[in-house]
Design a protein that fits this description.
The chain is 49% helix and 21% strand. It has 6 helices and 11 strands. The radius of gyration is 51 Å and the shape is elongated. The protein starts with a helix and ends with a helix.
Length: 298
């Protein structure tokens, strides 16, 4: 029996010697903290250089505290003795007057590991109030405090959707009338622009009957007439225009201006340009009357 005990102690001696060589220490960086306050817990280990040591990681249960961050430092070795340290930043949510924490350090052996615990570190609870009065006293305040009202996006979405549907129905029912209305306004605006430019160009032609002025007047009139009648008037000659529009006077008026372009004759052009303006006005009024009749028929 004694021989067996000696053999067991001989086998256990290396582990006991190593265990005595590893020293751990753990403490809080402050003695008290408020609930939820960030506090540092320092864990240090001093051991032989040949020994392998492991510190706890985030999978360790830090109850009743909560781990916020782990900060490690580079090992320091001197005279074959290594020192490691790690700071665990934790928060305490316990209402106990004192909370205790001790973290293990694991020494890796060949077939097993040895766990080293430092002494428990105490962290006292720091209260923000020295004492709670027996009866609560409320401050008198009768001033109206307005509360911010958040937008109800669901109701706003429903309202906007209803407005869009309503506008869609209105457009579907009155699309043709809307189109004719805008067509009428577009033609009126086009006529006003044409009439303004026509008066300017014909005044220049009367004042200076040059080939350039005459060509500008003819081009302006043909362009407007083509837009109002949808006929290829720009491609026709003066005789073809009079023939297609069944109006010999148009041919005479255009020919009077053509004489300035092709023959260089500065004949009287004021009467011709006045007549061409009246022809354009008649075509504009015919189109406006047609648009109004179409809108009334819908």
């Amino acid at each position: 029996m004694v021989k067996t005990l000696k053999i067991f102690l001989f086998l256990l001696l290396p582990f006991l010697s190593n265990a005595q060589q590893v020293k751990v220490d753990g403490y809080f960086m402050q003695d008290s903290a408020k609930i939820g306050e960030r506090v540092g817990y320092v864990l240090k280990a001093t051991y032989p250089e040949s020994t392998q040591i492991i510190f706890p990681d985030s999978t360790f249960d830090f109850s009743p505290m909560v781990l916020l961050e782990k900060k490690t430092y580079i090992s320091s070795t001197q005279d074959s003795i290594t020192q490691d340290s790690t700071v665990y930043f934790v928060s305490n949510f316990s209402l106990d007057p004192s909370t205790y924490l001790t973290l293990p350090v694991y020494e890796l052996a060949r077939y097993d590991s040895v766990v080293h615990y430092p002494m428990e570190a105490e962290l006292k609870l720091k209260l923000t109030l020295d004492s709670i009065p027996e009866q609560l006293v409320f401050q008198q305040n009768n001033i109206y405090q307005s509360l911010e009202k958040s937008f109800n996006w669901i109701i706003i979405g429903i309202i906007l959707g209803g407005i869009l549907i309503f506008l869609g129905i209105i457009y579907f029912l009155f699309a043709d009338k809307f189109q004719e209305y805008w067509t009428e306004r577009r033609e009126k605006r086009r006529w006003e622009q044409f009439e303004k430019r026509w008066k300017t160009q014909t005044a220049l032609l009367t004042k200076n009957p040059s080939i350039e002025s005459a060509d500008e007047v003819i081009g302006l009139w043909k362009g407007y007439m083509e837009s109002i009648t949808n006929l290829p008037i720009k491609e026709w000659t003066s005789s073809e225009i009079g023939e297609q529009l069944d109006n010999l006077e148009i041919f005479k008026a255009l020919r009077a201006i053509d004489l300035i372009i092709y023959a260089g004759e500065s004949s009287e052009s004021e009467e011709a340009t006045s007549y061409l303006l009246e022809v354009a006005r008649e075509k504009y009024q015919e189109k406006q009357t047609k648009i109004k009749h179409e809108r009334a028929a819908v």
